[in-house]
Design goal:
Elements lengths: L7 E5 L3 H12 L3 E6 L3 H10 L4 E3 L3 H4 L6 E4 L6 H10 L3 E5 L6 H14 L3 E4 L6 H11 L6 E9 L4 H6 L6 H4 L3 H4 L1 H12 L2 E8 L12 E8 L9 E7 L13 E8 L2 E5 L4 E6 L12 E5 L5 H15 L7 H19 L5 E2 L6
Parallel strand pairs: 1-2, 1-4, 2-3, 4-5, 5-6, 7-10
Antiparallel strand pairs: 7-11, 8-9, 8-15, 9-10, 11-12, 12-13, 13-14
């Protein structure tokens, strides 16, 4: 078993995500050796919070440090592959923020580099560690709504100036590897995979652009079909990703995420926050034979801390992370399929057969 107090880490990219990674690593006893950012003030803010962490404006110096065991990449999407591969080639484990990479070729190069170095490549995809979605997954496995047929997911956001001031690269389609279907859709495709299994086909359309200064999509919609089983077709899903859904809540900053799954016996719904609304006609869920809605509250948990603990456990026993690069490639493939469909006028795109 690895003693986490002997593990050294470097944070490369010290914005919002880098700050969360730093706090989670420190909470697990990992020594933060470097904070790296082109904005030296941002790097210094992390270094000052976790002494004796040092600062740099380039990742090269950190990769030469033999005391760094794991590198946390919280960079613009187009830098994930080149910096991640450099870290792996330097013999470091890599935790990379979502998405894994900007496209599948870059993702495959990262996965190959991890295999070559015999090091962990893990994506910080926190939906896989969120107790809300894990509870829904368990409910579906228990058959409380029967066989799922339809899932609907909506990510309601209104693009804030502060968001762009902190991430000016997000306006550039190449640097962001797209728009909201990449930044938000990568989470939601992975949530759907967690709940309903493998995705078979994607169709997508891009809405008229509201934020003209942004090159990537600010609103897009996908229609998804899941793989079937036992000779029956799979479920279907609708996915809405939007930066222009303005209401009293989103105009003040917070995002609103809604989820609904309908099956043969009822539905599971998350309208906002941490509350699951369950309706089921299964006999044991009808007290006295009366129809009722079951309310299940799932407390929030710091998923960054949970995923860091998982990473450290995998480093200790050599197991493959739940969100390894190899496994998270599939969600990236779904997003890339959505963008290909948009470019082809909404034509359906079939994903490759899932690997074992």
């Amino acid at each position: 078993m690895i003693n986490s107090t002997l593990i050294g880490a470097a944070i490369i990219g010290c914005g919002w995500a880098g700050q969360r990674h730093a706090a989670a690593l420190a909470s697990q006893g990992v020594s933060l050796r470097w904070a790296v950012d082109v904005d030296l003030a941002r790097a210094q803010s992390i270094a000052e919070a976790y002494p004796p962490c040092r600062v740099a404006t380039s990742h090269a110096q950190t990769l030469d440090d033999a005391g760094v065991d794991v590198v946390s990449l919280c960079l613009p999407h187009y830098l994930h592959a080149p910096v991640g591969i450099a870290a792996l080639d330097a013999g470091k484990h890599v935790l990379v923020e979502k998405p894994l990479a900007g496209d599948l070729d870059e993702a495959d190069a990262m996965i190959t580099a991890a295999q070559r170095a015999d090091k962990i490549l893990m994506v910080a995809e926190n939906v896989r560690f969120d107790p809300l979605y894990l509870r829904i997954q368990a409910l579906l496995a228990e058959g409380v709504i029967g066989r799922p047929a339809l899932i609907q997911m909506i990510r309601e956001c209104y693009l804030q100036r502060s968001f762009l001031e902190d991430r000016p690269w997000f306006l550039n389609e190449h640097q962001a590897a797209g728009g909201i279907m990449m930044s938000g859709g990568i989470h939601d495709f992975e949530t759907m995979r967690l709940l309903l299994g493998e995705i078979e086909q994607v169709q997508a359309l891009r809405a008229p652009q509201r934020f003209l200064e942004m090159e990537g999509d600010d609103t897009s919609v996908a229609l998804v079909r899941f793989a079937g089983a036992d000779g029956r077709p799979g479920a279907v899903a609708t996915l809405v990703e939007s930066f222009l859904m303005k209401n009293l809540v989103t105009a003040s900053g917070p995002e609103v995420h809604t989820l609904r799954i309908d099956g043969e016996l009822g539905s599971i719904e998350v309208r906002d926050g941490r509350t699951i609304h369950l309706f089921s006609e299964r006999a044991d869920l009808l007290p006295g034979g009366e129809l009722r809605e079951h309310i299940l509250y799932v407390p929030e948990q710091d998923t960054f801390t949970v995923l860091i603990a998982h990473l450290l456990a995998c480093m200790a026993d050599g197991s493959e992370p739940i969100t390894s690069g190899r496994r998270q490639r599939r969600a990236l493939e779904a997003v890339c399929a959505a963008y290909r469909s948009m470019a082809e006028g909404g034509a359906p795109v079939t994903l490759s057969a899932p690997s074992s």
